[in-house]
Amino acid sequence: MIKPVLGEEEAAAVADVVRSGWVAQGPRVAEFEASFAARMAAAHGVATSSCTTALHLALLLAGVGAGDEVVVPSLSFIATANAVRYVGAAPVFADIDLATGNLTPETVEAVLTTRTRAVIAVDQGGVPVDLDAVRAVCDPRGITVVEDAACAAGSTYRGRPAGAGAEISAWSFHPRKLLTTGEGGMLTTGREEWAVRARRLREHAMSVSAAERHAAAGVIIEEYAETGYNYRMTDLQAALGLVQLRRLDAVVARRRELAARYRKLLGEVPGVLTAADPDCGETNYQSFWILLPDGYPVGRDALLRGLFDAGISARRGIMAAHREPAYEGVRADLPATEVFTSRSLILPLFHEMTPVQQERVVEVVAAAR
């Protein structure tokens, strides 16, 4: 359904790292951090083992801890809410806008309390959240807004890369994303002190990194001033990421071309809403979702089965964390989220997709009864 764009250039880059003998976190990671941060208009990049670990570090840097509350959308992969629990805080679910799948200033403000320390604003499926509007609610209250840009590499917000306007953002390089390192993530921030601390925390909070010790002229004895984590990226992954970063613009352009064709074809299916650019920016179409209207001839699950029977790989729409057993008992009055997670599905969209394949997908959707 979603396939990474990989080729011989990636294979050669990884092979070069293997031949170098330095396969752990090292010079390629540093190069990838600098290149990715520059592409996303961020001052600092800190590579991590995943977006989830980047979110964990972001909350630690923001000073979130036990007794605090963090506002998150339930409509997101469960890692968004899980990261809040990692720091001992309580996730508070806010509703979303049906047109974008994202938090709004109104839905955030509705659930703020005196215990709110942070908000995680997700660029759902690559659709950029209206970050300035959310920050206008949070900044005067001293609430840190963390942008969960897991899906947003290549998306834009008000003419700049998504994530550029956040104090801190977290990114994913999972194979379902447009830019992949197999597994892996990145934290970007404009605050140097946060970047310095994040680099320590990801490597067991060592005062001097392994790479720095290796390059030193003499003996260095490191110290451990706080509890840290093993959240490192390898040079193997970073080498892959550097090639992928060079492909990003072409990959986004192709996905936007395919999405425009989907939207045109699906315009003939009454009532179906599709993923689209918000007023505040452009999406990379990491996911192309459709939302079935109330009273559609078949339900979402029946349509998924029909697509499967026709040999088409589609997925349910974005999950809602509050429906999962892990979050049973967490208060959740989320009418728009309930509609979105119950009636949406994600259609196949990949770089090599042909017009005939797209037409077949839409044909099955339109014929569903």
From TrEMBL:
Keyword Transferase: yes
UniProt keyword list: Aminotransferase, Pyridoxal phosphate, Transferase
Cofactors required: pyridoxal 5'-phosphate
A Gene Ontology molecular function term of the record: transaminase activity
Keyword Methyltransferase on entry: no
Family the entry assigns: Belongs to the DegT/DnrJ/EryC1 family.
Protein's UniProt name: DegT/DnrJ/EryC1/StrS family aminotransferase
Native species: Actinomadura yumaensis
Lineage start: Bacteria, Bacillati, Actinomycetota, Actinomycetes, Streptosporangiales
